[in-house]
Amino acid sequence: MTRVPRHLFVPEVLRHKAYLDAPLPIGFGQTISQPYTVALMTEALELRGGEKILEVGTGSGYQTAILAELSQRVFSIERIPELARRARKLLDRLGYGWVLIRVGDGSRGWPEEAPFDRILVTAYAPRIPPALLDQLAVGGKIVLPIGREGEQRLLRITRLGDSIRQEDLGPCKFVKLLGEEGWQGGR
Predict the structure, then answer these.
(1) pLDDT tens readout for residues 141-177
(2) Nearest alpha carbon to residue 4 among 80, 96, 88
(3) Domains along the chain with CATH numbers
(4) Backbone angles phi, psi at 15, to 5 degrees
(5) What's the CA gap between 66 and 38, in Å, rounded?
(6) pLDDT score recorded for residue 185
(7) Residue 78: is it exposed, middle or buried by C-beta count within 10 angstroms (0-12/13-18/19+)?
(8) Residues 33, 60, 71, 76: which is the catalytic one?
(9) What pLDDT is attached to residue 154?
(10) For 34-50, how does the pLDDT look when each residue is reduced to its tens digit (9 = 90+)?
(11) Burial status of residue 16 (CB atoms within 10 A of its CB: 0-12, 13-18, 19 or more)
């Protein structure tokens, strides 16, 4: 995390707060997660090197850059075109030009690139999106927040063939995962 300059991923007016352990707004009703949460979620992926990673919710690109420090195969989906453009530009400038970013419904994943060894979701869903589970390799892990407004839990799901193991990593607070297999139309 020390190799990724967090202050570049927040609006200029908030750069003086970039290294506080707090989420910060990045526009369009979205936030950059607090450093503790980024570290917790990244650690929960249990990366060993070489995993193919899907990130749902590019946002500012900060979490994307952290993942790119740990794997050379990172795919990220952002539903807001302007955030995807900003993240792309900054990631290119910082030397992460090989990371693939696309605009779309992250709750549906990236089926043509599946399977993924790891999936990280940076917005909360009412349940595990089935499309993401389908795109997870056997032995793979998804780290995502599940719940409702004011009551969310960070989960790690491991795919064990035809079954899954679910671990509760504690309470959390995220924006909604909007999309076909998330919160449809904001509901």
Answers:
(1) 999 999 998 899 999 999 998 899 999 999 999 999 9
(2) 96
(3) 20-178 (3.40.50.150)
(4) -60, -30
(5) 8
(6) 58
(7) buried
(8) 33
(9) 98
(10) 999 999 999 999 999 89
(11) exposed
Q: Give the pTM.
A: 0.95
Q: Who's near 9: CB < 8 A, 6+ residues apart?
A: 18, 26, 32, 60, 61, 62, 65, 90
Question: Using DSSP, how many helices (H) and how many strands (E) does the chain show?
Answer: 4, 9
CB-based contacts of 33: which residues, under 8 Å, 6+ apart?
A: 23, 41, 62, 63, 122, 174
As beta bridge partners, residue 136 has 116
DSSP 8: G
- Given the structure tokens 């993942």, which residue do they identify? 67
Active site residue 33: yes
Q: According to the model, what pLDDT value does residue 184 have? A: 85
